[in-house]
C-alpha cells in the first residue's frame, strides 16, 4: 500500500480544487525551474536547481537524465539518494488528483538506484538502496532494496539475493 494522505472533495472533481491545495504562483515557479532543468545538459546545475528552488532532497553525484519530470506541485516531497540515475523522460509524482479525492505522498528513492527511461513513479512509494527499475515501469508500490523490478503492473523480477547470485555467476 502506498503511503499517501487522502483529501476528500465535494462537488466537482478534485482537480477543480487545485489552487486550494497549492499556490498558483508556486506551480508557475516550479514549472519554469523544471523546464529549465529538463533541458540542461549540466548535471550539477540541474541538481542545484532542484535543491535550491524546488527544495528537493538530492544526494551527491545523482544524475537526472534529459526530460525527467519531477512533480510540479509538491517537488519538496521528493528525496533521491546519492549516486542514483533517473532515466530519460521519467516522471516522479508526489500527488494525484482523482474524481472524489486527491492524494499527496512522499517519494523516496535510495542510494545507487537505477531508474530506466520512461518510468512513472507514483506518490507514496519508496525505492530501496541499490534497486534497479526497468524502463517503462509503473512504480505503484515500494521496491525492496537491491531488487530488479519492471513492468506494468510492476513486478519483482529478481530479489536482491537472486541479483547477487546472478552477478557472482557472471550472468550480469
UniProtKB/TrEMBL annotation:
Source domain of life: Bacteria
Keyword Ribonucleoprotein attributed: no
UniProt entry keywords in alphabetical sequence: Transferase
Keyword Transferase: yes
Molecular functions (GO terms): transferase activity
UniProt cross-references to InterPro entries, sorted A to Z: Hexapep (IPR001451), Trans_hexapeptide_repeat (IPR050179), Trimer_LpxA-like_sf (IPR011004)
Alphabetical list of PANTHER family matching this protein: ACETYLTRANSFERASE, ACETYLTRANSFERASE YVOF-RELATED
Protein name: Acetyltransferase (Isoleucine patch superfamily)
Source species: Oceanobacillus limi
Amino acid at each position: 500500500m502506498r503511503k499517501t494522505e487522502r483529501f476528500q472533495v465535494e462537488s466537482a472533481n478534485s482537480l477543480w480544487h487545485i489552487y486550494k491545495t497549492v499556490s498558483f504562483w508556486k506551480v508557475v515557479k516550479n514549472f519554469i525551474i523544471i523546464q529549465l532543468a529538463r533541458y540542461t545538459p549540466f548535471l550539477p546545475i540541474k541538481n542545484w536547481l532542484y535543491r535550491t528552488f524546488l527544495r528537493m532532497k538530492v544526494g551527491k553525484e545523482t544524475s537526472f537524465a534529459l526530460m525527467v519530470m519531477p512533480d510540479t506541485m509538491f517537488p519538496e516531497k521528493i528525496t533521491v539518494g546519492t549516486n542514483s540515475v533517473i532515466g530519460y523522460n521519467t516522471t516522479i509524482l508526489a500527488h494525484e488528483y482523482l474524481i472524489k479525492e486527491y492524494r499527496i505522498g512522499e517519494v523516496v528513492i535510495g542510494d545507487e538506484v537505477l531508474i530506466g527511461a520512461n518510468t512513472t513513479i507514483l506518490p507514496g512509494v519508496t525505492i530501496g538502496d541499490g534497486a534497479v527499475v526497468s524502463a517503462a515501469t509503473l512504480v505503484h508500490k515500494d521496491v525492496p532494496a537491491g531488487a530488479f523490478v519492471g513492468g506494468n503492473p510492476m513486478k519483482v523480477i529478481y530479489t536482491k539475493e537472486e541479483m547477487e547470485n546472478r552477478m557472482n555467476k557472471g550472468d550480469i
